[in-house]
């Protein structure tokens, strides 16, 4: 059977890394992740609207729980709410898509990368098989420069969309501790994951044990654990699309405080 150029490149890369015995939790290129990051984009059709202010981030964080970070770098208001088919009960929070509009004279036809941060529960988000309710900023970014308002006035647009890898530059994964957390209960929002963006699982290891305790997805990007815990805490992430693991060692320190965001030194890409 013939091996494609892409598969040859992946095989050579895997062989060149083999002698170094790099553990999967610190670095890994699964075939799925390689494909998501490198292969040609596969476009599908969807509908699109926008909400919130024309130059805003839609809502203040939305159903995924990211809060006001959606209006700040690296999200920078290029975010979207999606209908039930993509939101999938919050399991797609953090996933990235490229969108580009068509069928309107103000469309630039250039793709814009957005992150799922919110849920759209009604209207065309439900009646259409796939629908993006974009922030005003993201919707306007699909327009020819100077024609953003003309595009926003179009109402419902026909767009093309494609799943792509998230990439936030030099930003590392962050963990926002919910204000209601205490020594017997902790809830965190996971932010800025490169690559897949969405998560299949989150586990926590405290200072009293070498075992990992699985956290429960409470809603959106928020994960919780009911247990007596001793800091510092390490966090193990498992990405949903590729199944890759990533460990943030001792990322939540002794003396941690509810309502605080703790930045790690790691990311997937």
TrEMBL record:
Keywords (A to Z) from UniProt: Secreted, Signal
Domain Expansin-like CBD intervals: 184-264
Signal peptide: 1-28
Location of the protein in the cell: Secreted
Domain of life: Eukaryota
A family per Pfam: DPBB_1
Keyword Transmembrane helix belongs to the record: no
GO CC field: extracellular region
SMART domains, per the entry: DPBB_1
Expansin-like EG45 domain boundaries: 61-171
InterPro entries to which the protein is assigned, alphabetical: Expan_Lol_pI, Expansin/allergen_DPBB_dom, Expansin_CBD, Expansin_CBD_sf, LolPI, RlpA-like_DPBB, RlpA-like_sf
Similarity field: Belongs to the expansin family.
Name of the protein: Uncharacterized protein
UniProt organism field: Kingdonia uniflora
